[in-house]
Known about the structure:
This is Signal recognition particle protein. It comes from Bacteroides graminisolvens DSM 19988 = JCM 15093. Belongs to the GTP-binding SRP family. SRP54 subfamily. Its main location: cytoplasm. One of its GO terms (biological process) is SRP-dependent cotranslational protein targeting to membrane. The protein is α/β, with parallel strands linked by helices. Helices cover 53% and strands 13% of the residues. An eight-stranded mixed β-sheet has the order 3-2-4-1-5-6-7-8, sandwiched between helices. Helix 9 links the parallel strand 5 and strand 6. Helix 2 packs antiparallel against helix 3, helix 4 crosses helix 11 and helix 7 runs parallel beside helix 8. It is elongated and about 70 Å long. The site of guanosine-5'-diphosphate has 19 residues, from helix 5. The site of guanosine-5'-diphosphate (GDP) has 19 residues, from helix 5.
Amino acid sequence: MFDNLSERLERSFKILKGEGKITEINVAETLKDVRKALLDADVNYKVAKNFTDTVKEKALGQNVLTAVKPSQLMVKIVHDELAKLMGGETAEINLKGQPAVILMSGLQGSGKTTFTGKLARMLKTKKGKNPLVVACDVYRPAAIEQLRVLAEQVGVPMYCELDSKDPVSIAQNAIKEAKAKGYDLVIVDTAGRLAIDEQMMNEISAIKEAINPQEILFVVDSMTGQDAVNTAKEFNERLNFDGVVLTKLDGDTRGGAALSIRTVVDKPIKFVGTGEKLDALDQFHPERMADRILG
Ligand code: GDP
């Protein structure tokens, strides 16, 4: 994950090795490399520019105060700013509500259904929750089947209505069922499209209105880089979601989405998917991610 970015950043800090102090010149040279590394990792242009401007200001400002070597000082500042860029604090999901309702959103293929299974498993095993997962994709029977199989593997019940073409009433009925049977968590998987379209956005907005979820998560494939960020922006404008799930971080993703999304949509990344298996899910910790990026 982010191997190329890590390598490139490490190389850019080498410019400062052997330098006695931080100067305008050696900082500018280092940060030129850092910015290139970020852009090559598919980080949004404005995000990369603001990032290096902030690091420059801090580096020049702190220089007089410290006996630390310039390269170490730069690594520390870049680390702290990377963590800030990704949100700083770990963001929890809201599980209040009887039942708590979580609504999934995102494009088809982003990993929504897989994440629904993974999240049910995580909250069942780690938080002692009793979840019901709901299939609201009325267009693709295969999607319902996929969730059924995942639910079975996780050992949680699944709600679907094979004859219904109305995702809003399916979601409402699922919540009634959860209340009647005592499930304390409902995770609603929704239909995705290959690209954003009006019908899809209207449908998920209608589900949101009808079920008033505690938490709306936007699921996005981290391999899609800048597109991930643009899609996030559009979904957020329509849904005002609560958090982002970045999937496929196990692939050769370059890091751009993880580093840009927070700034662009001002919503925290809450989870990362790191594989196809059901246990390949982590809560997102900005500090730890910054540690990983800097090796
Ligand atoms: P949906 O259309 O949004 O529901 O997406 P799916 O859950 O069907 O996932 C699409 C594909 O991505 C499937 O082949 C999943 O196994 C795969 N996938 C989902 N999450 C991850 C992940 O974190 N890592 C990897 N490598 N593959 C994933």
